[in-house]
Design goal:
Distance between the termini: 33 Å
CATH architecture of the domain at 33-127 and 424-470: Alpha-Beta Barrel
Radius of gyration: 25 Å
Bound molecules: 2-acetamido-2-deoxy-beta-D-glucopyranose, calcium ion
Strand order of the largest sheet: 13-12-11-5-2-1-15-14
CATH class of the domain at 33-127 and 424-470: Alpha Beta
Shape: globular
Strand content: 15-25%
Structural class: alpha/beta
């Protein structure tokens, strides 16, 4: 091989050809921006309020772009900012082409995108294709059967009730926020489908006019200069067709709950993960790629929300002939972990993505979002830094939900203060099981009034109690704060070719000790994690005999008593309870 190599160099007279002769795992492939990006989810309603009405807004985000830069963000994804009656806080869109007035104007958005661009930041918008608000003109026209809109939504007569009274819905399907997924419309005298709230009518993707209109929506916002989209609720895009008699199939009982209104009461074989949905995602990818080809500029990305099994999530990346989403969100660090998690759980959940991901695709890591309890509450504040370390050091793109960099915890929202339909459609006894309000409390900028989020007397959701110590201003001052650990991780990630291009190995060394190793050109970086509450002494050369005898500490979490840059024996590393530690070569 060596001589072939030399011959090649001699023949081609290329100075750098020697690289091509090394083993495949050391080729430093050029990566596109999104493949190593640090994505940051902004929940606009709770990020920053610029005009004192207690509600976050676009100008508030613009005023905090320096902060995004400070924490190393590549691209910020904004949860929906479109016109909406706010039944589901913007996920019920009454005009896909307009900005919700309380969030600002189109000009405010243009200003945000322009200022972000000056700082080298990209803005990504939320695309909510599955449904429109029943306040949307499209729905109103569909109710009236106006030409072109007759079949914009999923309509059905339902069935006569043999006992008399109200007509029966077309099938037993249940919506995400409790109760039937079918709602009677007395004007059109038919049921319409809503997989989410009654006010969120499912669009009919079997209608080519809907498909075209939604592509127009994508191009409209691409024209404003956005860098791509996060696509909401993709698995529920298509539903099964009715049979030849026009009857939609009932879904089978799951057997996991007796609560007949709970979405989990049924197994969703007809309302989720239908094959047509994959093709729609591929078509949206074509919209992105065509746009870039025509207008130039950087790759416009698609990040896809898919709470689905791997057999459906992985094909979202595309198949052998057609490209799909750049990044279908990897929710394994949410769905496969729980409080009291063990190192073996980490190994399983990480492996479940990396082992199943098709070759040549880019991984991504998510630990929280606006639909989940806060990471630091779900797994305990002990693991707040550890989860950030994993997200930043595992191969591929990282995704941070606003406040995770601070170790923000859930707010405590009473029944009276609850506003999330997932909570409000239940009752005071059970709402805490369903509510998403606790992770949506205002962002914590400082320990002053309303955590510096707003000057209003009352904010749209109450502040989380922890803001007096967990906030940007205070954490900036403390060297071992969650924020400063996060920033150190980001710096490491930005500087490290190894983290961008290196190979990976990971393993649970015991119930409580997890190790992740990244390697490139003989360089090695090790993340050691103790998820348990007792101290442990380990020999990481048992895991990798090629590791040097001594290594140097780099980044530690708040449970570590070690200092940065000290030399330790790889054969005998003492880890404190909950200690996480990044080691580099001396
Ligand atoms: C890939 O997806 C496209 C679009 O859905 C489809 O037409 C094609 O048959 C698929 N190819 C393979 C190999 O599955
Ligand atoms: Ca405001
Ligand atoms: Ca649907």
């Amino acid at each position: 091989m060596g001589s072939v190599c030399l011959t090649l160099i001699a023949v081609l007279l290329l100075k750098n050809s020697v690289l091509a002769c090394k083993a495949p795992d050391v080729v430093e492939s050029e990566k596109d921006w999104w493949q190593t990006a640090q994505f940051y989810q902004i929940y606009p309603r709770s990020f920053m309020d610029s005009n004192g009405d207690g509600i976050g807004d676009i100008n508030g985000i613009t005023s905090k772009l320096d902060y995004l830069k400070e924490i190393g963000v590549t691209a910020a994804w904004l949860s929906p900012i479109f016109k909406s009656p706010m039944v589901d806080f913007g996920y019920d869109i009454s005009s896909f082409y307009e900005i919700q007035p309380e969030y600002g104007t189109i000009d405010d958005l243009k200003n945000l995108i322009a200022k972000a661009k000056n700082l080298g930041l990209k803005i990504i918008l939320d695309f909510v294709p599955n449904h429109a608000s029943t306040e949307n003109e499209w729905f109103k026209k569909s109710v009236k059967r106006e030409k072109g809109f007759e079949d914009f939504f999923v309509w059905h007569d339902g069935y006569e009730n043999p006992n008399g009274g109200k007509r029966l819905p077309p099938s037993n399907w249940i919506q995400a926020f409790r109760g039937s997924a079918w709602e009677w419309n007395d004007e059109r005298k038919q049921f319409y489908l809503h997989q989410f709230a009654v006010q969120q009518a499912d669009l009919n993707y079997r209608n080519p006019l809907v498909v075209e209109e939604m592509k127009r929506v994508l191009r409209y916002w691409l024209d404003m200069g956005v860098a791509g989209f996060r696509i909401d609720a993709v698995p529920v895009l298509f539903e099964a067709l009715p049979d030849s008699s026009g009857r939609y199939p009932d879904e089978p009982l799951s057997g996991t709950t007796n609560d007949k209104d709970d979405h989990d009461y049924l197994t969703h074989i007809y309302t989720e993960n239908q094959p047509e949905t994959l093709d729609m995602v591929y078509q949206w990818r074509t919209v992105m790629d065509d746009y870039q080809r025509i207008h130039g500029g950087d790759t416009r990305v698609l990040l896809i929300e898919t709470y689905a099994p791997a057999w459906f999530t992985m094909p979202m990346y595309g198949n052998s002939t057609t490209k799909g989403a750049h990044l279908p969100f990897n929710f394994n660090l949410i769905t496969m972990l729980h409080k009291g998690l063990k190192a073996t759980d980490l190994e399983k959940s990480i492996g479940a993505w990396l082992d199943k991901m098709p070759a040549g695709r880019t991984a991504n890591w998510v630990t929280g979002n606006h639909d989940q309890r806060r990471t630091a509450s779900r797994y305990g504040i002990e693991l707040a830094d550890t989860m950030n370390m994993l997200v930043m050091m595992l191969p591929g793109a990282s995704i941070t939900y606003q406040g995770e960099e601070l170790g923000m915890i859930d707010g405590e929202i009473s029944w009276a203060d609850s506003v999330d339909p997932a909570a409000c459609n239940s009752n005071p006894q059970i709402y805490e099981k369903f509510t998403r309000d606790p992770s949506r409390t205002p962002f914590q900028w400082s320990n002053s009034k309303n955590a510096g989020f707003s000057t209003a007397a009352k904010t749209w959701l109450p502040l989380a109690a922890a803001y007096e110590t967990t906030n940007v201003e205070d954490e900036r001052k403390s060297p071992k704060s969650h924020l400063n650990i996060y920033k150190a991780l980001v710096n490491l990630r930005k500087q490290s070719k190894l983290l961008k291009n290196g190979t990976y190995r990971f393993k649970a060394l015991s119930d409580s000790i997890f190790v992740l190793e990244r390697s490139l050109n003989g360089e090695k970086l090790v993340l050691l994690v103790n998820v348990g509450n007792s101290a442990s002494t380990i020999n990481i050369r048992d895991f990798d005999v090629t590791l040097p005898e001594t290594m140097k500490t780099s980044i530690m979490n708040v449970y570590s008593t070690k200092s940065e840059g000290i030399t330790i024996q790889a054969g005998r590393i003492e880890l404190s309870p909950y200690e996480s530690l990044v080691l580099v070569k001396t």
